[in-house]
Amino acid sequence: MNLFFQQVINGLTLGSIYGLVALGLTLVYGILHIPNFAHGALYMVGAFMTYTLMIDLGSPYWTAMAGSAIIVATLGILLERLVFYPLRHSPPIHHKIAAIGVLLFLEATVQLFWGADFRRIASPYNGILRFDGLIIPEQRLLIICGAITLLIGLQYFLRKTMTGATIIAMAQNRDGAFLVGIDSNRVAMMTFGISGALAAIAASLYAPINLVYPSMGNLVIMKAFVIIILGGMGSIPGAILGGMIIGFAEAFGGFYFASAYKDLISFGLLVIILSVRPQGLFAKGAH
Amino acid sequence: MLQLKNVDVCYGSFKALSNISMTVDTGGLVVLLGANGAGKSTLFNTLSGLNRPTAGDIEFEGTRLNGLKPNAVVSSGIVQCAEGRKLFPQMSVHQNLMMGAYVHRRDRQGNKRRLNEVLELFPILEEKAEQPAGSLSGGQQQMVAIGRAMMSRPRLLMLDEPSLGLAPLVVKQMFETIQQINSLGTTVLLAEQNAFAALKIATHAYVMENGQLVMEGDREAMLGNEDVRKAYIGA
């Protein structure tokens, strides 16, 4: 039974990270209808920023995470202004090509300055908590609690504040949003900023139990795409639940079948769910 | 209040509006008649800043509107309630109405007062306040759309086909409400195909065909005009 609960903890950990990354991706898609392939690169830059602030500049973990979130949020806003905004009247394929270009550019830039080596961020929370035979590493607990806190905060921002509601309004009816006087540029920049910050925080939370390297975002972004397709493109609850489904499927599948096939499980699930429900789990009202 | 001088709008090489000149006086209820595709919605979207005029001038209360962004147009006091309602379907009725107050978001007291005025116009919306707007009937959705536009505190309210797809009884109530909004001090520009009902409450009317204004006059003149009666009233 303990082994089962151990997998629940692992599933929650993975699901929290996937959910945070997918949430940023789905927010941008919901508003601007851009599949931002560069989102995985923002995740990777987030991990490198935390690494640099912590290891090279000696900042405490939380300060490094906040600094990384601010830097990547700014990078996200710059991407919107310099790359996607000028393409706003172009055919959709141009956004996709530009996003892939940004992904390659960011990876190559990081490789130029930091090299291609694998790096490790030593967690300041490396203790282990034990509850009745159940082993919970502190960092994993931090990931779960951190993600839940962020999700609640984001939900509050989106549902209860006028500024946050502009993002939801823009996703539900773009013309309607223009007609009530919402400034689309402001919403687009804000969405890219939030999306970048979420990616950086997810990377900073996950990096201490993983490795940091220039292509670390590639598998994560593929999973995030699986998640938002599963959950329904543009759906916020879909991204959170989809993240948990993939996280749990990987944790349990990896443990009870074979850990070597855990990535295969995500994509297998995608095929199965799309066969049964092609619009995704939460597609109602999503794009 | 609103003056258009020789306004042209083009979509690529297609001229959607040609040489439009019109005036809307403060306190008036001006009706724009025209068949589908005549250019009424294009004109409204141009006034809202969603389309840019390729020639001509648009002036509102002495300020030139050409090239202003939609948010600046709403802030200046021109608000459109568009055809198809353009609501936020998963948001509640209350949230939809409050989104209408976006440009006045810092004036919480003023928004509260305005919300009460809107709920007096449409009492049913108070009962439905927590329901998603997308789950309401067509008539109730139209009330939310007009209510949301009123929350933006327009001095000029543009209503694009508000009676479209509604039951006859609801249409009658809708026109009464529009007249009430006008009598409370909001200038109204109303695009309609339901010409008889619209002309009954109008102070002035324009007729649009193929992107051009082809006729204008006050209510009596338009109701008495043989061409208008044949083309739009069917009598």
Q: Could you explain how this protein is built, in words?
A:
Chain A is mostly helical and about 290 residues long. Chain A has helices at about 1-30, 40-55, 60-85, 90-115, 140-160, 160-170, 175-180, 185-205, 215-230, 235-255, 260-275; strands at about 130, 135. Chain A has a two-stranded antiparallel ribbon. The longest helix of chain A has about 30 residues, at about 1-30. The model of chain A has no long low-confidence stretch (mean pLDDT about 90). Chain B has a 6-stranded mixed β-sheet, sandwiched between helices. Chain B has helices spanning about 40-45, 70-75, 95-100, 110-120, 125, 140-150, 170-185, 195-200, 220-225, 225-235; strands at about 1-10, 15-25, 30-35, 55-60, 65, 80, 155-160, 185-190, 205-210, 210-220. In chain B, helix 3 packs parallel to helix 6 and helix 4 (about 110-120) packs antiparallel against helix 6 (about 140-150). The two termini of chain B are about 35 Å apart. In chain B, about 40% of the residues lie in helices and about 25% in strands. Classes of the chains: A mainly alpha (about 290), B alpha/beta (about 240). At the A-B interface, helix 6 and helix 7 of A face helix 2, strand 6 and helix 3 of B.
What topology does this entry show?
The complex is a heterodimer of chains A (about 290) and B (about 240).
Chain A: H1 2-32, H2 39-56, H3 61-84, H4 92-114, E1 128-131, E2 134-137, H5 138-160, H6 162-172, H7 174-179, H8 184-206, H9 217-231, H10 236-256, H11 262-276
Antiparallel strand pairs in A: 1-2
Helix pairs in contact in A: 1-5, 1-6, 1-8, 1-9, 1-10, 2-3, 2-4, 2-8, 2-9, 3-8, 5-6, 5-8, 9-10, 9-11, 10-11
Chain B: E1 2-11, E2 14-24, E3 29-33, H1 40-47, E4 55-60, E5 63-64, H2 70-76, E6 78-81, H3 93-100, H4 108-121, H5 124-127, H6 138-151, E7 156-160, H7 168-183, E8 187-192, H8 195-201, E9 204-209, E10 212-218, H9 219-224, H10 226-233
Parallel strand pairs in B: 3-8, 3-9, 6-7, 7-8
Antiparallel strand pairs in B: 1-2, 1-4, 4-5, 9-10
Helix pairs in contact in B: 3-6, 4-6
